[in-house]
Design goal:
This protein is 60% helix and 0% strand. It contains 13 helices and no strands. The radius of gyration is 20 Å and the shape is globular.
Length: 315
């Protein structure tokens, strides 16, 4: 057997096993930390960071598109968004805690206690929490494609000219507050989900979500009915509206399957060119993108001089 054959076999194995191995390994590490008495909130960060490093390395070893590994003049902007998501999320934490106490306390008073099934096995609780969280995020994401003002915020994310690990956090601060903090976290906290269940639910989603934008040639197989990553999300970044308005799931795809928005054609690959058709004048700079929702008419007008706006822009 030649070296080339061995390398090819290893690459094929990595393409299949990388995602499940990352999720299982990360969850095992979190369970070990929790059993050792380490606060799960403290354990999630290093596990997430290690997973991101693995993803960044694997983009070089097993790239989906080699040209996406080259800078498109976006590294500075995407790095600033990476830091922004951490900062905004941190600032929102105290407010979310207060809202959780107020709203959760009111619900507990009305129903005579917590409505969360704390007596269930922890795995069942994690599965339920995943279904609930993804439901809220599915509709939050879908609303950002269908409601004009929300699309103005979300356009920042779709303005990326390539799909790679770092631009997963390319999101306008308004979107971070609306979607990730209020919609993604608050519902479960208000329902009285135990801290350990929240930690495991979050960890499982974050580990898989790291591969949503990853420029890695992964092969999901049957897992394409579980996770909203790889080619499923690449179609979501298509310049064609009919292809982009699909696959809204954050880390998982099951709500898309239920509501008929799962899209994964098997006769062709996702397009190499991604972004927003007809909005070529959308700013590339970090702070210019922050104010883009308030300069929308001007951006559209400038874009028309380059190309006729497509339906995805005329919302």
């Amino acid at each position: 057997m030649s070296i080339a054959t061995i390398i090819s076999a290893v690459r094929a194995m990595l393409a299949i096993l990388l995602v499940p191995a990352s999720v299982i390994g990360g969850l095992a590490a979190l369970l070990w930390a929790m059993n050792a008495g380490i606060d799960p909130e403290m354990a999630i960060f290093p596990i997430t960071l290690a997973n991101l490093v693995l993803v960044a390395v694997m983009e070089r070893i097993l790239p989906y598109r080699r040209e996406w590994n080259r800078s498109h003049g976006d590294l500075r902007t995407d790095s600033l968004y990476f830091l922004t998501e951490i900062v905004v999320g941190g600032l929102m934490a105290p407010l979310l805690a207060v809202l959780t106490i107020i709203i959760g306390g009111w619900i507990s008073t009305q129903v005579g206690g917590s409505i969360w099934p704390t007596g269930w096995p922890i795995l069942a609780q994690v599965l339920l929490a995943t279904v609930v969280r993804e439901f809220f995020d599915y509709w939050a994401h879908r609303s950002m494609h269908g409601i004009h003002w929300l699309w103005r915020l979300h356009a920042t994310h779709h303005s990326a000219q390539r799909v790679y690990w770092l631009n997963a956090t390319r999101a306008h601060p308004g979107e971070i507050v609306y979607r990730f903090c209020v919609v993604w976290v608050l519902p479960l906290a208000v329902l009285g989900v135990p801290k350990e269940v929240l930690a495991l639910t979050t960890m499982a989603a974050v580990l898989a979500d790291a591969y949503q934008h990853a420029n890695i040639a992964i092969r999901l197989g049957p897992l394409s009915w579980v996770y909203s990553i790889g080619n499923l999300h690449r179609w979501h970044h298509s310049r064609d509206r009919h292809e982009a308005d699909t696959n809204y799931g954050n880390a998982y795809i099951f709500w898309d399957a239920i509501f008929g928005t799962r899209y994964l054609p098997h006769d062709r690959e996702p397009p190499e060119q991604v972004g927003i058709a007809g909005l070529e004048a959308f700013p590339k700079g970090f702070f210019a993108q922050w104010i883009s929702p308030f300069r929308w008419a001007r951006i559209r007008s400038e874009s028309k001089s380059v190309n006729q706006a497509s339906p995805i822009v005329t919302k």
